[in-house]
Amino acid sequence: MTIVEAGNALRRRKISVSELARESLKRIARANAAINAFITVTEGAALARAAELDRDLARGLDRGPLHGIPVAHKDAFYTKGVRTTAGTKILTDFVPAEDAELVSRLCAAGTVMVGKTNLHELCHGITSDNPHYGAVRNPWDLNRIPGGSSGGSGAALAAGLVPLATGTDTGGSIRIPASYCGVVGLKPTYGRLSCRGVVPLAFTLDHVGPMTTTVRDAALAFQTTAPEHPDVAGLRIGVPANFFFDRLAPEVAASVRHAVQTVAGLKAQVDEVGLPDVDALNTAGRLIQLAEASAVWRPYRNRREDFGADVFALLLQGLLLPATDYIDAQRVRRMLAREFAAIWNSVDCLLAPATAIAAPQIGEMAVRVNGCEEDVRLASTRLTRPFNVLGWPALAMPCGVSESGLPVGLQIVAPPNREETLFRVGAALEDALGVNRPRRDV
Questions:
Q1: Domain boundaries, the chain
Q2: 325-352: burial string, b at 16+ Cβ within 10 Å, e else
Q3: Choosing a second label site near 154 at 20 to 30 A (CA), which of 2, 27, 161, 296?
């Protein structure tokens, strides 16, 4: 059941908040052993909260479209009185005294937290193969990764355990699991949703945002509304002429090109647009993330045995970077940001693939893309990371299914603070493509 459907059912008194919460908890109990999406389940608190929200509705207090909606928070968000591990042994027993700002905001809107989702350790990776809390598995194929670092949130949505989850995104960590799990993920404009109370990874790249099963649900979670009958006629949509289509799995290229043709058929004005040096932007982003993540976790560098091997290796790389490299990367970032901003003179949004491949196998370190071997991490992040560096809003959504039955993800990108454009285009494509609810029960 989507957020929209659940809200309609609640207001017609066809279901109660308590029944929604119990159904979500029942699904988690049935499926979590298979997909390992949750580190912590908050059953008692969820049922008490649901009963309170039922009483509110009975006396006419409706908090809005998220009233009574079950939500799962990525276990990097502070949750008052509920442990927050960030997927690491370092924080195994950390119980925050307050909620993260986004958690508090969603609570005020009437959501019911049912638990905390599994993730790649420290949010510093894309597989969600966690050495401390176990690997998260993709509900579409349990031998494949859900993406990361918000893999537990993506898997929980794809399996129908919750209609709403939160994620963090430093190099693609909302959009990659959205792409691999066939759900919707929003990385808003940098700073538009506060990161206060979220375990940091890289301060100048970190974003937080909602993950849902439909574009309209993502709009509601962002506390706006996608148009009921979205019209994209005349909207200027750019398709990158370079980099984004250079090295893709054939199935990804075909599905994304079909989405481009579809939006053109809806009378949008579609044109190719040349982009500045995306490779340089990605290089700057990787250097900045390595340096900033190592600065955050430097106080714990002597506890090597408490980190997973892959994450500790990345932290060591960051510690070895000269300060001059970090400063130069930030200079390149500022220079390229000015160059990239010029594209908004000719287009209103961009359409591009979210990931170059469909979900790889758990444990797979490299994949072949058009006959060339590529590191799984780079194949997953090279199309998402540029928009963290730029701070532009980006929405990932499903646009097809591969021959092997795996989701293919599309990415829509807009100028800063134009999230409404993302929802307008995304909702129109969702209606036209008919792939808005591709989840699987486990």
A1: 3-221, 236-276+334-433, 280-332
A2: ebeebbebbeebeeebeebbeebbbbbb
A3: 296
Active site residues: 74, 149, 173
Cβ–Cβ under 8 Å, residues 151 and 177: yes
pLDDT single digits (tens) 39-74: 999 999 999 999 999 999 999 999 999 999 999 999
Strands 236-240 and 70-74: unpaired
**From start to end of 283-393, where are the E strands?**
349-353, 366-369, 372-375
**In whole angstroms, what is the distance from residue 150 CA to residue 367 CA?**
21
Question: Rounded to two decimals, what is the model's pTM?
Answer: 0.97
Distances (CA, A) of 275 to 25, 278, 419: 46, 7, 21
Two tokens, residue 355: 């990931």
Q: pLDDT digit string (tens) for 146-170?
A: 999 999 999 999 999 999 999 999 9
**Structural contact between residues 291 and 255, judged by C-beta atoms closer than 8 angstroms:** no
* Helix, strand or coil, per DSSP, at residue 299: helix
- Residues written for the chain: 442
Q: Of 373, 397, 140, 409, which is closest to residue 253 (Cα–Cα)?
A: 409
Residue 281 near residue 333, CB atoms below 8 Å: yes
Q: Do domains 3-221 and 236-276+334-433 have the same CATH topology?
A: yes
Determine whether 321 is exposed, middle or buried from the number of CB atoms within 10 Å of its CB (0-12, 13-18, 19+).
middle
User: Which two three-digit tokens encode residue 128?
Assistant: 């969600």
- How far apart are alpha carbons 201 and 86 in whole angstroms? 10
Among 118, 172, 128, which Cα is nearest to 396's? 172
Alpha-carbon distances of 256 from 121, 240, 244, 285, rounded to whole Å: 31, 12, 11, 25
The C-alpha atoms of residue 279 and residue 285 are separated, in whole angstroms, by: 10
Helix (H) or strand (E) holding 380: helix 376-381
- Classify domain 236-276+334-433 by CATH number: 3.90.1300.10
Query: CA geometry: angle at 381 spanning 191 and 208, to 5°?
Result: 25
The overall average pLDDT reported for the chain is 96
Task: Return d(Cα 6, Cα 214) in angstroms, integer.
Answer: 13
Distance CA 266, CA 428 (A): 8
How does pLDDT run across 215-229, given as a tens digit for each residue? 999 999 998 888 889
**Distance from first CA to last CA of the chain, Å, rounded?**
15
- 38: closest CA among 79, 8, 90, 98? 79
Q: 292 near 258, Cβ under 8 Å?
A: no
